Structure formats: structure tokens, C-alpha cells
Amino acid sequence: MEEDPEIATTQEVDHNNDGNGEAEDSNGVSGYSAARERERSVPVIITDPDVLDCCICYEPLSVPVFQCENGHVACSSCCARLRNKCPMCLMPIGYNRCRAMEKLLESIKISCLNAKYGCKEVFSYSMKSDHAKECVYIPILCPHTDCDFVASSKELSLHVSHRHVGSGVQFTYDKFITVFLNTDQKEIVLQEQNDAHLFIVHNKLELLGNTVHISCIGPKSMAGFHYDILARSRGSTLILQSVTKIIQAIGHASSSVFLLIPSKFFGCGQLKLDIRIKPQH
């Protein structure tokens, strides 16, 4: 008669019984190992962190790490890009692994540079660049003039809601709002009523008129938002449909996509814009 696999599994687990009717904790060994690892860990201060970066691209090294005969180290991407020739001494590189450096990289754990803004992540040094691209706690400067407040996007949204009440325009996703823009006004701050995300309407005076586009303030990993800008004047309508660029400061807001609005659209030096913003689905 074929053995019931469920009963067999139970019998195998019973083999770990300590004789007192209690099975050994399956996490006991792993828990002990983790404790031992913590006991063996040693705090280290690296006075020159650049020694852990690729000497060619200056990005943090990650396994595999290669070295030439003279000891210069490089990442695998640079070895391939330079056709396995060391740029320092022109010796072959990309064939011999630097095991000592690899073990060092795997053993070093660092805290996120954004720890002061709320990030609690600890990771291997080789993951430094990847984490920086994804970290939601990247510091962002308040978009309001003469305000030097810097915080994560979440804290910044709260700051704007409480400290700059009435200084921006409230809106709801997927609904048109009307804003008025002066010819020389550089930006308007928008804030969504439900999730408090911040957006900037950028305006720049050019020879042929004004260029207008919208960006979103947030971490680099954040997805952009669809937006529409409509400018009307005397029966004519100009329309831009695009996706917001994600920025961390007003100075990062340059864009190759914008709506060029001729000067004649600005009646009495002011322009009326109809704007709609909606998340990507």
C-alpha cells in the first residue's frame, strides 16, 4: 500500500523531537547563526570610501570584481567596455577575479545616506547605487520661494499643507482646474487634495512667447503623471499632452517637452490655463 505523503512528512518532523514531546524550533539554527554573526561583526570607519568604487566609472564595485596584473581593479561592465585593457597601465584586465575585494564588499553593510530623513535600510556597499535610485526618502527642497525646508517627499507634502496654506492651488486628479499665470511668473505650486502630491507648473519667457510644462516633486523611483495643458485666446486653443518629469528641486525642472504660447495669448500680461493631471494606469 502506497504511503500517504502527509503522514510521511509528519513522521519526518517528529524525528526532530527532543524526547519531551516538543519539536525543535525550525528557526533555532538560523537564529543562532544570526546571533553569532552579530557577535562577530565589528564597526569600521572607512576614511576613503572611494577605494570601494570602480577606478574607471567611479560607481560602487559589485561582484564580480576584476584586477589586472598590477592590481588595478574594475567592475565587469568597464572591463567589457574597454575590451579588457586596463586604462591605468594598459595591461589585460577582466580575466582574474579579485576575491579579497569581493569578500570585503560582501561583508560591508552601510546605512542609507538618507537615514536622517527617515530611511532605516541597511545594505551591502555594492547595493548603494541601486538603493539610491529607489529610496523614497531622498531629500527634496521646498518649492516655495525663500523656504529652505528639506525633507522626504511625504514630510514635504505635510510641510506645504501646514506652512504654505493658500500659497498654492489645490486640485483633484482627472479633473480640469483653471490657473492664471503672469508673463514673468516662473512657477505655480499645485497640490492634490487626497494624496497631497506636489506638482509645479513651470513658465519661462522666451523670444517667441512663453514655454509651459508641468513636473512632479518626488523620489526618483516615482512614476510620472499624465497631464494636459490648454491655453485659449480669441477662439484659438493650444494643447499639450505629456507626462511629468519627477524632480527633487525646482532647479532640476528643465524639459524638452513644453507648450509654446505666443505672447498674444497673454491678455493684459496674464494667461488663463486649463490643467488636468492624472496618474498613469
Automatic annotation (TrEMBL):
Domain RING-type residues, every copy: 54-89
Pfam families cross-referenced by the UniProt entry: Sina_RING, Sina_ZnF
Residue span, SIAH-type domain: 107-165
The protein's annotated pathway: Protein modification; protein ubiquitination
Organism of origin: Lotus japonicus
InterPro entries tied to this protein: Sina-like_RING (IPR049548), SINL_plant (IPR044286), Znf_RING (IPR001841), Znf_RING/FYVE/PHD (IPR013083), Znf_SIAH (IPR013010)
The protein's name: RING-type E3 ubiquitin transferase
GO BP, sorted A to Z: protein ubiquitination
